[in-house]
Amino acid sequence: MKEKTKRPCHYSDLFIKYNGDVFPCCEVWCRNELKIGSLDDPGILSRILDYKPPASCECQNYKLREAREGDNFKSSFLNIEFSLKCQASCAMCCVEAPEWKGKYNDGYFDIIGQIAEHFQPDELLVQGGEVLFQDNTMEFLSKLRASLPRTAFCLVTNGCFKNRKTLDSLKIFNRIGVSLVGFQNETYKKIMGLDLDITKKFIEYVHNETDIKTLLKFLSTPSNIHEIPLFMEWAAGNPPNAVVFEDTGFWQYVNKNAPFSYWNKILFRTRNDFLRTVENNAETVLRNKLKIYLRPHIVDLLSLSPGDFPGTLKDYVILHDIHIKYEDL
Fold first, then answer.
1. Are 297 and 250 in contact (CB under 8 A)?
2. Looking at residue 58, what DSSP letter applies?
3. Please, are residues 18 and 81 in contact by the beta-carbon 8 Å criterion?
4. What's this model's pTM, rounded to 2 decimal places?
5. Quick check: 118 and 72 in contact, CB under 8 A?
6. Alpha carbons 87 and 69: distance in angstroms, whole number
7. How far apart are CA 95 and CA 81, in angstroms?
8. Could you report the average pLDDT of every consecutive run of 10 residues in the chain (329 residues)?
9. CA distance between the termini of the chain
């Protein structure tokens, strides 16, 4: 097994929550003991640079340690969660945005701008809530764009927008990731409260009318997992730079030991249909160099492995458990 690299992760990655809390990466936002500080704290820039982890932390590739003399500061990834304001009503929203009744502290814009300009990250990832539904956030990002000419601006969105003002505002982004929870109209409406046809047209607009890189993420639940092949078929016909399959906690919602091996049958049939769909679209996948990222829980649910994909297809199937960087696409 490859030994994990020990590093001061906060010298490379940072995550800022909607409430102003700052963490050494987005994977530990729920571990309050690893919090660096808050945007409300005086001297937060210094606190980030001088951060000494009070607890151990490691991921697939790295182990967190404090900074030492000689460490090079190179900010590659700044991940910011702005307001939780959102036009969707996702039934499985991990930040409970539909129920959020708060007000985002607009005063954070100034300090976020200072942090971003000081660190000059290679990649700035923005999410909500729904950033495209937040006029003040978009206004701030448009101004920040001018001071970070070499930074790749990346957006996470539900993509359910059709008005010209919003479509025109996309030009500040280098990559757009669209999250989909289902791929049939009624499923999508019941889970997300949105119109799938509008989202499809949004994706087609970005693909056909802009030079923005696109990443489409399918989030599985027991209500939609059988729609993975439908999504893959459509994505192959409107090829983004990558598709991602991620689970939202399948077994939390259902009884694994349901009678008649019900869920095992559903998962087995979905697996076979998915593999068949990828193989049937092999020419398109290879021609467009379409990367297919499989998160660990999806791999387990559908019993997948790179060996399931024939020939050179396996070169485009990636088992991945960390952030997909802009440069990866």
1. yes
2. B
3. yes
4. 0.93
5. no
6. 47
7. 10
8. 79 92 86 92 91 84 84 86 95 88 92 93 96 97 96 98 97 98 97 98 96 97 97 95 95 94 97 97 96 94 92 89 79
9. 27
